[in-house]
Amino acid sequence: MSGIPSSGNQSNPWVRRVLIIGAITLVVGIIGLITALPSIDDNFRPDTLNKETIEPNENINTNVSGMRIYSFYQNVTENGKIEGTVTILQDGKEIELREPTIMSGVGEMEFTDGSKFIPMGWIQVNENTNVNLISNSNTTIYFVDQNQVSEEAFTDPIILTSCISLGVGVCFLPLGLVMFLVRKKNNPIKSVMTLKTPEGDVNVSIGTPTTGGAVLTTDQIYKITKLQEKIGKGELNFQFNIEDKTVTKNVPAPFADRPDDINEINETQKESITKVEKNNQEEKENPSWKDWDEG
Known about the structure:
Elements: E1 2-8, H1 13-43, E2 52-54, E3 59-64, E4 70-75, E5 85-90, E6 93-94, E7 109-110, E8 116-123, E9 129-136, E10 141-145, H2 146-155, H3 157-186, E11 190-197, E12 200-207, H4 218-231, E13 235-239, H5 262-285, H6 291-294
Parallel strand pairs: 12-13
Antiparallel strand pairs: 1-11, 2-10, 3-9, 4-8, 4-10, 5-6, 5-9, 7-8, 11-12
Helix pairs in contact: 1-3
């Protein structure tokens, strides 16, 4: 029976799935929009998708719906600027032409063939009514229902699928990254030990709150093996709570007759010096013990 330790973290499959889904949907959305650009050029041009076409100096009547945005566009590809004006009358009263803004969804439009359309302005009425449109320009004016353009765009299968894919990708990618960082921060390191037994290999996963893992004693390995024999094949998971405690033990002196304390050492040295000095003094006072060698 032997143990082969190794360490590692089992990755959470949901984190990987969220990241993969986010990346795939984001790529699909980008590819879909790129593919849909030619159809946008062909189908959503003001000279193609419009409610009315007002020829130079023409006067027409048309019905409009309440709370919808209607814009007036001119093709300025050749001259680069708007020519003339347009007058809108409702029941004989002039309706103010509002300035184009991003919030209204009315802005300049350029297409791949080089054509450019600039808005003259937009109107919005409170209820369904009939309006009189008077052109004071020598250039054709296109009266566009902006809500219809939005409806056409978001009912197009390619554009709708691309927008949904982009939305899912933009949401899932940050979510997956947050889940990955949180899991990496909170998931403790596990030590995995493979026990070689007569019955086969036994994988023991040991979770510890420290980075160093746990060291199993021979008795613990024996008990784990017996427990595995009772349970059968599989993987055992154990949680060890290891406390970092510094244990200070007083180690006895290597020599029993030698003190460890510095004060005791100093006192012993003083006593030894005193004894040596006393012996020397006695030899000087009574040197008779040397006479047997000299006589």
